Amino acid sequence: MTDPQQHIDRLHELSAAAREQIANAASLDELKAVEAGSIGKKGELTLLKKQLGSLDPDDRKAVGQAVNEAKSAIEAAIAARRATLEVEARRAQLEAERLDLTEHPARRRRGHLHITTASRDRLEDVFVGMGYTVAEGPEVETDWYNFEALNIPPSHPARGMWDTLYVDLGEPESTLLRTHTSPVQIRVMQAAKPPIYMIMPGRAYRRDTADATHTPVFHQIEGLVVDRGISFADLAGTLEAFTAAFFGPGIHSRLRPSYFPFTEPSAEYDISTAEGGWLELGGCGMVHPNVFRAVGIDPEEWTGFAFGFGIDRMAKTFHGLADLRDLFTNDVRLLEQF
Ligand code: DAH
Q: How far apart are CA 34 and CA 12, in angstroms?
């Protein structure tokens, strides 16, 4: 027969030792090992508990109570230590996963939009300010949208105005890279009923050899107004207001008679330069009745004007560049200056 006091003393030792180990456990894994060794299935406390059956009923009660007390004390210590270790582990994980997003002061340089993009944005802003909305269309077009619907039938001599790049798709010369943004006018009129006040910026392509004033890829902004009673005076007034808003109040616009198959009458749009000359920026005119007919708009009821300007040319003029190709070379030494 064992002395119950011996058990109780051993329990006290055990509890004290376990709590010291718990306090010293440096990780959740270590804590788990201490837990298994003390109150786990094969832990000493559990073994002691199993021996209770061999005690006298009175002793059993006293030792049993001591077992329970020791167990509760150890469990409480484990729970407290676990909470602390979990917080520490989480903090360590966050620290390890932290991204240093502070910039090195020597590299703190802000980028900015390319001047072509910035010009396009400003153009849009000016027209949106006048109540226009913005639309876009595909860069790969059919002959019908790029030419026929714009009153340029097959073999019309005016086709020579655009050196076209064809896409090898479908019938020969039926698919092409749009030579201007004017086909978007057709798409807009097919999709929306008048009144229409829209601008359509985008890329266009021509079989041109690049030089200081030409690039085979370039940007245009197309404008289209269709309403009742629109006259050439509305076109001239709109372009004059646009010129002042985009280039500044000292710059004026001029319209010179010209020819485009999709407008009648047609004009060339020039702006005054600081040197006292004039600079040609694009074409415009009153929408030709045949264009309205191609999209099912009644030319007896509706009239309208259209225009198409080169965005790159405007950016070149606005920033005083010497060569259009600089807008496509993307040499940062140039781009950084704006
Ligand atoms: N699409 C013409 C071109 O690229 C420019 C143009 C002229 C557009 C007159 C128009 C217009 O909308 O009315 O050469």
A: 16
